[in-house]
Write a structure and sequence with these properties.
The complex is a heterodimer of chains A (534) and B (991).
Chain A (H helix, E strand, L loop, with lengths): L54 H9 L8 H7 L4 E2 L12 H7 L7 H23 L4 H22 L2 E2 L10 E2 L1 H16 L26 H13 L1 H4 L5 H14 L11 E3 L13 E3 L1 H4 L10 E5 L11 H5 L5 H4 L10 E2 L1 H5 L6 H6 E2 L1 E2 L21 E2 L17 E2 L16 E5 H16 L6 H10 L10 H12 L5 H7 L24 H7 L9
Antiparallel strand pairs in A: 1-7, 2-3, 4-5, 6-12, 8-11, 9-10
Helix pairs in contact in A: 1-4, 4-5, 5-6, 6-7, 7-9, 7-15, 9-15, 15-16, 15-17
Chain B lengths: L20 E9 L10 E4 L5 E3 L5 E6 L5 E5 L6 E4 L8 E3 L8 E4 L2 E4 L7 E5 L22 E4 L10 E4 L12 E4 L2 E2 L11 E7 L2 H4 L10 E6 L9 E13 L8 H6 L11 H5 L3 E13 L3 E13 L6 E15 L4 E15 L3 H9 L35 H7 L1 E20 L2 E20 L17 E23 L4 E24 L25 E6 L3 E14 L3 E12 L8 E12 L1 H4 L6 E13 L10 E6 L5 E7 L8 E13 L3 E13 L2 E5 L2 H4 L3 E5 L2 E17 L3 E18 L4 E8 L3 E10 L6 E4 L2 E4 L5 E3 L23 E5 L4 E11 L2 E11 L2 E4 H6 L31 E3 L2 E13 L8 E16 L35 E2 L7 E11 L1
Parallel strand pairs in B: 1-7, 13-16, 47-51
Antiparallel strand pairs in B: 1-4, 2-3, 2-5, 5-6, 8-9, 10-15, 11-12, 13-14, 15-16, 17-18, 17-52, 18-19, 19-20, 20-21, 21-22, 22-23, 23-24, 24-25, 25-26, 25-27, 27-28, 28-29, 29-30, 30-33, 31-32, 33-34, 34-37, 35-36, 37-38, 38-45, 39-40, 40-41, 41-44, 42-43, 45-46, 46-49, 47-48, 49-50, 50-52
Helix pairs in contact in B: 4-5
Classes of the chains: A mainly alpha (534), B mainly beta (991).
């Protein structure tokens, strides 16, 4: 090659403006740092809690599974002897996890066990972030700490041995139930401004308010949570503290200014009334009013979770409990799921005439808005009218579609949406009376000491007072009063009945009294130890 | 794109040699007169030689008169010429038979022989025939290792395209599409009739020049263009097709249903017949092309009207494309301009109608008036509805009453400016813009039970509105330098810069509660009562940040003695989608190829090439913002706003990357060609949402780089001209591919995925995901027959005396579970046959796959005679277990889905019509698609399901439609369209 012997090149030197190598990602459609805007005073569809810096924290109680399917509520109710979800042929088997809850054969892979864990810790993190922000005033800081203690109390109740995380992102080793108990106690006492609960208690120096704002923790709400903690101290801490539970609950009864909502004093419009059904009352009174859709100013509520069909969703009982066709009784926006029903023996523990039986359950042939029969074209019995029978043929595989009294304590309103309006009490005066009754009785070793409080509740329900009572009867009465309030599992454990055999459930081993630590969390964390037995 | 300054400095040094005589000229293609770039010119028996420049020109010193010059060009027949008196020798070379392909690679093209990576070119003649709207389906079965599946063939459905199996978990699994050099172009904006050829870059060494988006493969599309000096030609191509359902789901007839204990509602309805129809497809394409000496053009318009077999599903699409190629300044400047516009009006229809047609009571009447009991059907627009059932809707009412449609518009243009700075140095600048919009509407009238709330006294009727806009800008600049290193050895360098920016915005709103059935209230939403009711109007909007991809790249190709080929490339690329600490990545590649026949000189062979390539490519996540923390807004009812953390940030989030080694052997003779590719690919650092300690972080998920997998595979393509005659030709070809993928590392070492779903089988995960094992193992208990109560019993697989078969015990060491099948085929193949005789041609294309199984979910839910489901129809295949009255997932519902399809049979007759003035090149064809399916699978379509969209119950939409799970292959869900058989008459001619 003679001509072009060689070619040497210098390659392109390119000079670029800075913008042409700029890869900063400025997200326009997502929120990456906190925004807090105080109330604008905008009008709301019904009286609502005034907002404040703790909105997100209180809102997390709704998200943490308090009154919806698949998390905290489902674990508490379905593992107890009051509710179940049966497999209805092809419907609601779901890999057996619902049957497992009823029969106490749950495993670390159970989805609800994981959901309750992540939901509760998510709520705790929101509180931790607020506390870490350092901008809360004394009242709000005290509220945040009590709320966090309450969330840890739930975790202790469910899982026993958990991590106590108090700062966002700061790990801390898993501790025993006893230590979680101590943490909860100390946090609440500090918020109340006292060093211990003893006779002569005075929480006048608490940073917490005393005004009856049921959607925030005031000093009586904090005392109620503390009373519940002490009531279960024997289980959670391994040491009985019934005297303290009695003092705390007595203080609320004496000083809180709350009243038991009875028929004479307490009445709200019946929002579920059907135009064509004369027997539907115009108003809900007494016990029914405590849980009604319009219960937002009920005098019995001490600390409640605020729910609203539009602005504060998360209570789905109408969907969870009712048969598909019950849509026509209440003109629901959406078709229910036909899931939860009541264990027959539990339903039968109510005597006829008990106002709580009438309020807490839907049974019998169903009528629609205009008074005509609600039909179930897919009925699996001979009668095409939808008819809820308290008797349930079997748990699985073919629980009849119409079988089972349906939980309806938080009553439904006409034209209801999938999310309900009823506010859900965490602490209410009726419950405080039960804590007081039990604490006094156990402390004295005499169940008849419980009679005064228990009979107040029985009289409100329109049933005759007891003249004497024992532990079993007390537990049954507590169950009747507290049905559907997420309390039964804890109560059965405290009374040593959780492992008993009941309908379609053999006796279970004591290790199931706390749930397994979710397997997913053990894998993700690396430093969590599984609870014994799993 | 902000301003950019590109300065390129070149220096050129030449040494002038002592010459006796200089011969110069141009080497061109004999067929179209285009210059051949890089053709070799040597003096026979001497050492002198050169190669042609970008204009096909050469200049060579020769010893003197009588010297013999040899002109050769890969893929062309060589020619020799004796030097005479003239100092100018122009020569035109003719393409050879087998090796004439010029293959488009990134930022340039190479002859087939020079390629050192696994690249497959498919030209228009080889495309699948018939009225195909989706360009990817033109390739179905044609390219070894390329999987193209649209299960059921939904005309508006998404085609799953996979190259060499699973290429990513968590990132964008769709291949990168490059249309006429425009990276990331939309496949939807290309009409199949406008495509000249497609090149598929299969391995890492080929795709690495595209960097972060090359891992899922690259499809390069070249559209048709006009030729220089071509008189204007108007071409017409028309197709008329009819489609009929080919394979439904076997269900009970009304009589069988009643005999099985079903609720008798007195009628006899074949619901599948009620919701399907004969689909009709019309395609008309018109193209005008031509050119002068400097400019060529092609303008085309395509109209497609497709009516699917499901009533009220289909689309009407208009597409136009303009290509103009021109030269100026003594041919130094080349400008290629192309633009296309697509307007597609889509009726999505409701696949749910097919699902409910399967499970709806066959004794139920279509209309309420035929109900056996008093039924207030006005509420439902006259239709019957079985009320009080979960997941049950009158399918005819679904298709007749509801509307789900939209208009998609895509517009793009691209201009490429190429300038020959020197004979062997060009600079290119490419600018393109693409704009895609979609506007969709759904309307469910007040009388529709399905999503319309007909039973809700408070809130009937629902209207949903969707509005999307995507914009892409691309700027690229690169230079190519051709170095001549003497005796038939050449070196090509390419280097450049690429800037791409994507923006996407969407808006959505939904509202309902309309007055009555007198109007389609989606056009009068001011009547919605939701406007008076807080919280019922659904609304959402999002906007992506400026999503940028910026790259610098370079490549060198060397050809030594026309026998040894070397390629090396590197791309440094950055993306906004990654963590601040790891935005930039480097993607190198290297390849070497040797034509052994240049040394072995086996007479029977034209080519015996062995090549080895290695390359690293990346994958980007589909979403933006994964490296940043995410918070949700909590609105208080009285106007306060706070937020809660729902996902953590990760500043270290980096590229997912794939390293691939490919060994290929190519053998070609006059009539026979074979290509074998063996590859090993390792993919690591998937971008996945990983569980973190919820107790500490407060959120339980964060995006991290986690996991790796290895895929090994082999691909074989064979092509043989069985008969080559004057009047009769028969060519046959086969492509085979096989691969297996092992999960080496993952966030969970052991997991089950793929929930069966409602009714009643939630928490039933059917796919095993286990580190160290293959992907796609269907996992479950083995069915052992019904017990006395009709419940299924299962095998005691471990022989421990207890059967543990509960779904949530799937991973229990004592559980009686085993692998029930693989969701991924072991072998996929395509077999094409082309016969030509006397103007007739017959094209038969078979396609199949073996070794994969499918979970037939229709059977898993509806085949057992469950008492509480007596108001739904029962699926009734030959595999039905008569005594079974309880539905539980097991091996009973996992079916082998081996199949062989006669995918395409075309008989065509062409008439040159040379002596007719009006028209010429008349071609008439008859095509049948999906004519024959040989399979034992009882579902509607045995094709593999490569990923999973999840389950949908009670009228809802599956959760993962936009982000299907690639670790869950093998589930045949209930939301698929049903397969159809299409017969098409086609006519084409030129004016």
């Amino acid at each position: 090659m003679k001509n072009l012997k060689n070619l040497i090149l210098l390659f392109g030197i390119a000079m670029f403006m800075a913008s042409c190598t700029d890869l900063e990602e400025n997200l326009t459609g997502d929120v990456t740092s906190d925004i807090t805007i105080p109330s604008t005073g905008a009008s709301a569809p019904e009286p609502v809690p005034t907002s404040g810096p703790l909105d997100a924290a209180y809102g997390q109680l709704r998200g943490a599974g308090t009154a919806n399917h698949g998390s905290y509520y489902s674990l508490q109710e379905l593992s107890s002897d009051e509710m179940l979800i049966g497999a209805k042929g092809g419907d609601w088997f779901d890999g057996g996890i619902l049957i497992e809850l009823h029969r106490h054969t749950y495993t670390p892979g159970h989805a609800f066990v994981n959901n309750a864990w992540t939901g509760t810790y998510g709520a705790i993190n929101t509180v931790n972030e607020l506390l870490a922000g350092g901008t809360l005033d004394a009242d709000n800081e005290a509220q945040a700490k009590v709320l966090r203690a309450y969330l840890y109390m739930r975790l202790m109740d469910l899982y026993g041995n958990v991590k106590i995380i108090t700062e966002p992102g700061q790990n801390s080793p898993q501790v025993s139930s006893s230590e979680v108990f101590d943490f909860c106690e100390a946090e609440i006492l500090s918020a109340l401004g006292v060093s211990e609960i003893a006779s002569g208690l005075d929480v006048g120096g608490s940073a917490l308010g005393a005004d009856p704002t049921q959607f925030k923790v005031n000093r009586f709400g904090a005392l109620g949570i503390l009373a519940k903690l002490y009531l279960n101290a024997e289980v959670w801490k391994g040491a009985a503290m019934y005297d303290k539970a009695a003092i705390a609950s007595q203080y609320i009864i004496d000083n809180g200014g709350y009243t038991l909502c009875d028929d004479a004093s307490c009445s709200v419009q019946n929002l579920g009334k059907r135009a064509g059904v004369d027997s539907d009352p115009d108003n809900l009174t007494g016990y029914a009013a405590v849980f009604a859709p319009n219960n937002y100013d009920n005098p019995e509520h001490i600390f409640s979770v605020y729910y609203n069909e539009a602005a504060a969703g998360g209570m789905n009982f109408s969907q969870m409990n009712l048969h598909y066709s019950s849509q026509f009784t209440w003109n629901f926006d959406a078709q229910p799921w036909n899931g939860y029903s009541t264990v027959e023996d539990f339903y039968n523990s109510y005597e006829d005439g008990d106002a709580r039986k009438t309020n807490n359950f839907i049974v019998g042939p169903q009528l629609d808005f205009s008074g005509s029969a609600v039909l179930d074209y897919a009925s699996d019995d001979d009668d095409i009218q939808l008819n809820y029978t308290p008797a349930i043929n079997e748990l699985e595989p073919n629980h009849r579609r119409e079988a089972g009294a349906r939980p309806a304590k938080f009553s439904f309103k006409q034209f209801g949406r999938p999310d309900m309006d009823n506010d859900y009490p965490i602490i209410r005066l009726g419950q405080v009376h039960l804590i007081h009754a039990e604490a006094v009785a156990r402390d004295a070793g005499d169940w008849n000491q419980a009679l005064t409080d228990v009979n107040m509740l029985r009289m409100r329900a329109g049933v005759s007072p007891y003249t004497s009572i024992d532990a079993d009867e007390f537990l049954a009465e507590r169950g009747r009063e507290m049905f559907q309030e997420g309390s039964r599992r804890t109560d059965l454990i405290r009374f040593g009945k959780f492992n008993d055999a009941w309908w379609e459930k053999p006796a279970s081993m004591p290790f199931v009294n706390i749930f397994p630590i979710p397997q997913e969390q053990i894998t993700a964390a690396g430093d969590l130890t599984q609870n014994p037995g799993y | 794109m902000k301003s950019v300054v590109l300065m390129t400095v070149f220096a050129l040094i030449t040494t002038v040699s002592f010459a006796q005589r200089t011969i110069s000229g141009t080497v061109t293609d004999a067929e179209n007169g285009d210059p051949l770039i890089g053709a070799t010119v040597v003096v026979k028996g001497a050492s002198q030689g050169t190669i042609t420049d970008f204009d096909g020109k050469y200049s060579l010193d020769v010893p003197g008169e009588g010297a013999v010059l040899e002109f050769s060009y890969t893929g062309y027949s060589a020619k020799t010429m004796t030097v005479g008196a003239d100092n100018t020798i122009d020569i035109a070379l003719s393409a050879g038979t087998l090796l004439d392909e010029v293959v488009v690679v990134g930022y340039g093209s190479q002859s087939q022989k020079e390629i050192t990576s696994a690249v497959t070119s498919v030209s228009a003649e080889e495309f699948n025939k018939g009225p195909i709207s989706d360009p990817a389906q033109l390739l179905q079965g044609k390219v070894a290792g390329l999987q193209v599946y649209n299960r059921g063939g939904d005309p508006n459905g998404n085609t799953t395209i996979r190259l060499r199996g699973i290429s990513t978990i968590g990132s964008n699994a769709a291949p990168l599409v490059v249309v006429d050099g425009i990276i990331g172009a939309s496949l939807d904006n290309v009409d199949p009739n406008d495509i000249e050829s497609m090149d598929i870059l299969k391995d890492g060494s080929a795709a690495a020049i595209y960097g972060s988006r090359g891992s899922s493969g690259v499809i390069l599309i070249t559209t048709k263009k006009g030729s220089k000096n071509q008189k204007p030609t108007l071409s017409y191509n028309g197709q008329l097709g009819t489609a009929t359902p080919v394979n439904g789901i076997d269900v009970m007839t009304a009589d069988e249903f009643v005999a099985a204990g079903g609720t008798d509602l007195g009628s006899n309805t074949n619901w599948l017949d009620e919701v399907t129809r004969t689909g009709v497809t019309n395609v008309h394409s018109l193209a005008l092309s031509g050119g002068s000496a400097g400019t060529s053009y092609r303008v085309s318009g395509n109209l497609r009207d497709v009516k699917g077999i499901l009533k009220n599903s289909g689309f009407t699409q208009f597409n136009t494309r303009v290509n103009i190629n021109t030269r100026a300044f003594n041919d130094k400047l080349k400008v290629d301009f192309n633009s296309s516009f697509t307007d597609k009006k889509q009726d999505f229809g409701f696949n749910e109608a097919l699902r409910y047609a399967v499970l709806y009571n066959p004794t139920a009447p279509v209309m309420g008036a035929d109900s056996p009991f008093p039924f207030a059907s006005e509420q439902f627009g006259g239709f019957f509805e079985s009320l009080g059932l979960f997941d049950s809707f009158n399918p005819v009412s679904i298709v007749e009453q509801n509307r789900r449609d939209g208009t998609r518009r895509e517009f793009n243009f691209g201009a490429n400016f190429g300038y020959n700075i020197l004979d062997n140095l060009t600079a290119n600048v490419r600018i393109s813009r693409e704009r895609k919009t979609f506007s969709g509407e759904e309307y469910y009238p007040v009388t529709s039970l399905f999503r319309g709330g007909a039973t809700s006294p408070s809130r009937k009727g629902q209207a949903n509105f969707y509005d999307e806009e995507a914009n892409t800008q691309l700027f690229e600049a690169y230079g190519t330098y051709l170095a001549d290193l003497g005796s038939s050895t050449s070196l090509t360098f390419t280097a450049g810069y690429s800037y791409q920016q994507n923006n996407f915005e969407n808006k959505f709103f939904s509202l309902g509660d309309f007055p009555n059935d007198s109007l389609d209230w989606s056009n009068q939403i001011s009547a919605s009562q939701d406007l008076n009711n807080a919280g019922l109007i659904g609304a959402g909007s999002s906007s992506t940040p400026d999503e940028k991809i910026i790259a610098f790249f370079g490549r060198a190709n060397a050809t030594i003695n026309n026998a040894i080929f070397l390629n090396a490339s590197v791309r440094r690329e950055g993306s906004t989608k990654l963590g601040a600490n790891n935005r930039w990545g480097i993607f190198p590649a290297f390849g070497v190829g040797v034509d052994l026949n240049e040394y072995l000189n086996i007479d029977a062979l034209d080519l015996f090439k062995v090549r080895l390539g290695y390359g690293v490519t990346g994958s980007l996540p589909t979403q933006n913002g994964l490296s940043q923390p995410l918070r949700s807004v909590v609105n208080a009812a009285d106007g306060g706003v706070t937020t809660a953390l729902i996902r953590g940030g990760n500043e270290d989030l980096k590229w997912e990357q794939k390293a691939e080694t490919n060994l290929g052997v190519e053998v070609a003779s006059d009539r026979f060609g074979a290509t074998l590719d063996l590859y090993n690919r390792n993919i690591k650092d998937f971008i996945l949402e990983v569980l973190v300690d919820a107790s500490v972080e407060g959120f339980d998920r964060q995006f991290q780089n986690a996991g790796s997998l290895t895929t090994r595979g082999a691909e074989l393509s064979l092509d043989y001209d069985v008969v080559e005659g004057d009047n009769f030709n028969y060519n046959t070809g086969i492509v085979l591919s096989t691969y297996s993928t092992t999960l080496d590392d993952f966030v969970d070492s052991l997991n089950v995925r793929g929930n069966l779903g409602a009714p009643g089988q939630n928490g039933t995960n059917m796919l095993l995901v286990k580190v160290g094992e293959e992907i796609g193992q269907i996992w479950g208990p083995v069915y052992a027959g019904p017990d006395a109560e009709g419940n299924p019993t299962f095998e005691d697989l471990n022989g421990d005396g207890t059967v543990i078969a509960a779904a949530d015990k799937a991973l229990d060491p004592d559980a009686d579970f085993q692998v029930l099948g693989s969701g991924i085929p072991t072998l996929e193949f395509g077999w094409s046959n082309q016969l030509d005789f006397n103007g007739w041609s017959v094209n038969a294309f078979f396609r199949g796959a073996v070794g994969h199984s499918l979970v037939n979910t229709y059977r898993a839910f509806y085949e057992p005679i469950v008492a509480t489901q007596s108001s739904y129809n029962f699926v009734n295949t030959e595999l039905a277990e008569p005594g079974l009255t309880n539905a539980r997932f097991s091996s009973l519902y996992v079916e082998k889905a081996n199949y062989l399809k006669l995918d395409n049979l075309t008989i065509a007759r062409s008439f040159p019509l040379k002596d007719v003035n009006a028209i010429s090149n008349l071609n008439i064809s008859l095509t049948g698609r999906n004519l024959l399916v040989l399979t034992n699978y009882t579902g509607t379509d045995p094709e593999p399901s490569l990923s999973d969209v999840g389950d949908a119950g009670n009228g809802s939409v599956p959760g993962a439609v936009d982000n299907p799970d690639p670790l869950v292959p093998g589930i045949d869900r209930r939301n698929n369209y049903f397969a159809s058989r299409v017969i098409t008459l086609g006519v084409s001619f030129d004016f």
